[in-house]
Amino acid sequence: MHFHDKKDLxxxxxxxxxxxxxxxxxxxxxxxYYKVSPSVTTKELHGPGVTTRxxxxxxxxxxxxxxxxxxxxxxxxxxxxxxxxxxxxxTPTQRNxxxxxxxxxxxxxxxxxxxxxxxxxxxxLGFVRYDLEAIVxxxxxxxxxxxxxxEVPVIRTPAEGSLEQVEPIAIxxxxxxxLHYDIVxxxxxxxxxxxxxxxxxxxxxAKVECHRIKVYVTExxxxxxxxxxxxxxQPAKKVLLFEKRADSPSVxxxxxxxxxxxxxxxxxxxxxxxxxxxxxxxxxxxxxxxxDLSNDTGVGPTEMEFNVQLPSCQMMKGRDESQRxxxxxxxxxxxxxxxxxxx
Length: 343
Prior knowledge:
Helices cover about 15% and strands about 30% of the residues. The protein is of the alpha+beta class.
């Protein structure tokens, strides 16, 4: 059994043309700008109005022409009344529409969106979307109205002065009294497609080995129905972003990640400057990212800096659903959040 829950967040609307009420603009089409196609002639532009004036002139002349019979006079009078019903200068009560000649008509619009409303969201069990609809009501029983619809993506950007992108996250702990590690992530918020700077300082307190470092991002998604009566917690996603092993070059799931070793790491003195610039030196026989700790000579902290690439929307196209990431959102019915995990 399937259930569908829908809730309208906000609706805005504006009428730009309403026959008989074009006071908002200086023209009869309610447009901010219009340009009639050069192929439209003056007679086509005026439409039946030209014919109306010609027939009325004929009727006026027949009133003094004794050669027309009463039957012909009645026929000309009916033609005159029919033409006047489509005349150029008729009032809205006589004709409830206006003819738009071929051309370009420009209507500017602006719809404010409250800052508390969620951005565009598309997840497996729910979505938030914003659609722009335009309706043209046509005259005549057999002329259907014209309806156009276009989805408009709404993207949330950080507020000016927001500290989320510059305020660091710092972790300083000991692992079983054998290794002290300091990890600093330079920011709390990162847009999709950007890089996450992570700095490591690993200080051995004993003869310990660090075989590899992995950086993951985990995603948690929760859904609620509109009345909060049903709650769904989707299984957490765990996506590997970056891995550095002692015996092999670093591996980035999404192209663009970089790393550099600024101190220690078993890098000899001749290669220290190059390693600090980002060149990788791999010892296939090494099993320890901290270098050789078998003797006490030169033992010290190892310092590394990773720039871990996050996937962009383009990078995630065509990937399996288990590898696709969404952005954070705190909408009341859909909540998505992420964690950076280092192991």
